[in-house]
Write a structure and sequence with these properties.
The structure holds two protein chains of two kinds. Chain A is mainly alpha-helical. Chain A has helices spanning 42-67, 92-100, 103-120, 125-129, 138-158, 162-179, 188-193, 197-218; strands at 22-23, 31-32, 39-41. Chain A has two domains: 7-67, no CATH class; 89-230, no CATH class. Helix content of chain A is 53%, strand content 3%. In chain A, strands 1-2 form a two-stranded antiparallel ribbon. In chain A, strand 1 and strand 2 (31-32) form a beta hairpin. The relative contact order of chain A is 0.09. By secondary structure, chain B is mainly alpha-helical. Chain B has helices at residues 2-13, 16-22, 30-38, 57-60, 63-82, 91-101, 106-133, 142-164, 169-182, 189-197, 204-235; one strand at residues 49-51. The chains are: A mainly alpha, B mainly alpha.
Chain lengths: 235, 250
């Protein structure tokens, strides 16, 4: 065994690597950043992990593809409109929006604003610093949050957009509850209180997007009316 | 047995032919391991060394890598499907029936392509949200975040253009519903819709245009952007590692 031991076992990973000691920004004094920790060689450490991840995924996909057939309906017929006619699942959130708002708002304005909002995230300091939302001037921030939430919820109620109203109200409630956390308090509310504005906006966006997509996929029937998925075949 | 295999591999790696292909002998020193990465066209955009913390599953759930793998699966199965597909009406639908009843493993091929497509949309979304919550968009990664957002849009367009190709009721009406939204755009809406569909309705021309977008234009754009995206990960200093990752928690 010893005799056949091959060379690959002999050498080790790099012992010396450059280390960042301080990180100086314009506004703050020099501060020590966390030790980035040990480094490993990409070959083999990263590559073997990716290879394993790929193999597991491919095997799982082959199994699913063997068991679950892709749907194929009748030949396309422009004269026979299915009711409801649904887009692919990732656009059903948009289709749900179209149910509440005019096509220009739901189909053009909101998606464009979402894409612009995503693109500009890293170019605003408020998102980079990521300070807890109640850390500075909490009572002023509370007023702004309250006014924004009330206007938003009133607007959604006017349009009867309850599937947007529900997740919005939930996220707003969590945000306002986190304001009541006292210093030194532990638990999940304290974790929420440490979150930044961008965290709350993104969480709200994901909450609304998931809710709209699930509703559009499972809870909408003929004429985009509300149906219960376990009773779709009735009527 | 294992040792025999090892020594066979080892002596293979010492041969002239192996060295001529890989430009190195066995990767048994840090020098040759580095060469294995930057001396290889397909690996050279990776860093030679990575932080141990960025390899942990929780750091990325390998979502970026998984999205890329799904793209490769789609590329391979897509090319195989192209052998059996005519982008014309009603042949397109007949080809789906042929896949089902005539072509060996045709259904499996289509299932795999469709599954990978849905998973890729899902994985790319999840990847973006995960990067956001880890603060991976922060400088110096700003531009790569923007490239990622564009890649998300390309992924959605790829999936959407592919949705029409079976030319069944599901495909036809999903695309009709979607493209009607474009008309809501002020001034240019109808013109853009006409350009995309090659007419005023979803018909033969629309099928051909979606096909060309799906199999040529969008995959080329995706490949280019994925290349930039990977390359920039390395140039911008690797994955974001949080100080709190020490205890394995976020």
């Amino acid at each position: 065994m010893e005799k056949n031991k091959i060379d690959t076992d002999i050498s080790s990973d790099a012992k010396k690597e450059p280390r960042r000691v301080v990180f100086v920004t314009k506004k703050t004094s020099a501060k020590v950043v966390g030790d980035p920790g040990a480094q490993l060689m990409t070959y083999p450490h990263l590559l073997i992990r990716e290879a394993i991840a790929f193999q597991v995924l491919v095997i799982a996909m082959v199994l699913v593809a063997l068991l679950w057939d892709a749907p194929l309906e009748q030949l396309a017929n422009p004269l026979l409109t299915p009711n409801p006619a649904k887009a692919p699942w990732y656009f059903l959130g948009l289709q749900e929006l179209l149910h509440f708002f005019p096509p220009f708002v739901a189909g053009i304005l909101i998606p464009t604003l979402v894409v612009i909002a995503l693109v500009v995230i890293p170019y605003f300091n408020v998102n980079i610093e990521g300070e807890a939302i109640w850390a500075q001037r909490p009572s002023r921030n509370l007023r702004i949050v309250l006014i924004t939430v009330i206007i938003l919820l009133a607007f959604l109620a006017v349009f009867h957009a309850w599937t947007i109203f529900a997740p919005t109200a939930l996220v707003a409630a969590l945000l306002l509850f986190s304001y009541t956390v006292r210093e030194g308090q532990k638990g999940w509310l304290n974790v929420l209180a440490m979150k930044s504005l961008s965290w709350w906006v993104m969480t709200w966006f994901i909450g609304v997007a998931v809710c709209l997509t699930v509703v559009g996929t499972f809870f909408r029937g003929p004429g985009w009316s509300w149906v219960w998925p376990w009773r779709t075949h009735v009527g | 047995m294992a040792t025999t295999l090892h020594s066979v591999l080892h002596s293979l790696r010492e041969t002239k032919v192996w060295k001529s292909i890989f430009r190195r002998g066995p990767a048994n020193t840090n020098r040759t391991r580095s060469l294995a990465v930057f001396g290889n066209l397909f690996l050279h955009w990776l860093p030679v060394k990575v932080r141990e913390k960025s390899l942990r599953v929780r750091a990325s759930y390998y979502l970026g890598s998984i999205s890329f793998l799904l793209f490769i699966v789609l590329f391979v199965t897509g090319i195989l499907l192209m052998f059996y597909y005519h982008p014309a009406t009603p042949h397109a639908y007949r080809d789906m029936k042929d896949l089902q009843f005539v072509v060996s493993n045709g259904v499996f091929l289509r299932n795999l392509h469709r599954l990978a497509a849905h998973l890729m949309v899902f994985a790319v979304f999840w990847h973006m949200f995960h990067v956001f919550y880890r603060g991976g968009y922060k400088p110096p990664h700003e531009f790569n975040w923007v490239v990622g957002v564009v890649l998300l849009l390309v992924t959605l367009f790829l999936s959407y253009t592919g949705y029409l190709l079976p030319w069944d009721q599901l495909a036809f009406w999903a695309v009709t519903v979607g493209t009607n939204i474009i008309s809501a755009m002020p001034l240019v809406g109808d013109k853009i819709r006409f350009l995309l569909l090659g007419g005023n309705i979803v018909g033969e021309n629309a099928l051909l245009r979606f096909y060309v977008l799906h199999v040529v234009i969008l995959p080329l754009v995706a490949f280019l952007l994925i290349g930039i995206h990977f390359w920039r990960v390395q140039k911008d200093g690797g994955l974001t590692v949080k100080p709190k990752d020490d205890d394995g928690k976020e």
